[in-house]
């Protein structure tokens, strides 16, 4: 099992999750974070840290397994490309406007890397 970051993170990017991860397995894109599924130890401590519920398990009840597989592939791919992030910074100034926006990945998904630590 692993935990994963969903598209809900896009442009919300609170980053509170990265500070609590015991194995530092978050990676930073320009507008979202991902988890490296191979490094995550499934502790779950990051889940309640996310104020927009952007972190799910790969066996999350009620989620389409095909969608979870696509999210897993995305988290793995981007964590191989993006820099590691272990220290939280402030979220984007307009983060509240992005909460609950639909189809974020399709409309706003980006492979641009973030700053990292
Ligand atoms: Fe890190 Fe634990 Fe969250 Fe996995 S579940 S990303 S190990 S804090």
Helix and strand layout, with pairings?
Layout: E1 3-5, E2 26-28, E3 33-35, E4 55-57, H1 65-81, H2 95-98, H3 104-108
Antiparallel strand pairs: 1-4, 2-3
Residues 3, 20-21, 23, 25, 35, 40-46 line the site of iron/sulfur cluster.
Tell me what the structure shows.
This protein is α+β, with helices and mostly antiparallel strands and 117 residues long. 22% of the residues lie in helices and 10% in strands. It has helices spanning 65-81, 95-98, 104-108, and strands spanning 3-5, 26-28, 33-35, 55-57. Strands 1-4 form a two-stranded antiparallel ribbon. It has a two-stranded antiparallel sheet with strand order 2-3. The longest helix has 17 residues, at 65-81. It binds iron/sulfur cluster. Iron/sulfur cluster (SF4) binds at residues 3, 20-21, 23, 25, 35, 40-46.
Write a short abstract of this structure.
With 117 residues, this protein is α+β, with helices and mostly antiparallel strands. Helices cover 22% and strands 10% of the residues.
Uncertain segments of ≥5 residues (pLDDT<50)? none
Q: Into which percent range does the helicity of residues fall?
A: 10-25%
Q: Give the count of helical stretches.
A: 3
Terminal CA distance reads: 27 Å
| Strand order in the largest sheet | 1-4
- How would you characterize the largest beta sheet? 2 strands, antiparallel
Ligands bound, unique = iron/sulfur cluster
Order of secondary-structure elements: EEEEHHH
Mean of all residue-level pLDDT scores: 97
Radius of gyration: 13 Å
Structural class by SSE content = alpha+beta
Given the C-alpha coordinates, what overall shape results? globular
| E-strand count | 4
Strand content: 5-15%
């Amino acid at each position: 099992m692993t935990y994963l970051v969903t598209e809900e993170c896009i442009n919300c990017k609170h980053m509170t999750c990265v500070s609590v991860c015991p194995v530092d397995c978050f990676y930073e894109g320009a507008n979202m974070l991902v988890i490296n599924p191979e490094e995550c130890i499934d502790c779950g401590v990051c889940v309640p840290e996310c104020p927009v519920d952007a972190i799910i398990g790969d066996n999350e009840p009620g989620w389409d397994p095909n969608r979870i597989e696509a999210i897993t592939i995305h988290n793995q791919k981007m964590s191989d490309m993006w820099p590691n992030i272990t220290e939280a910074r402030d979220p984007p100034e307009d983060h509240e406007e992005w909460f609950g926006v639909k189809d974020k990945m399709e409309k706003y998904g980006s492979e641009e890397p973030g700053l990292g630590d």
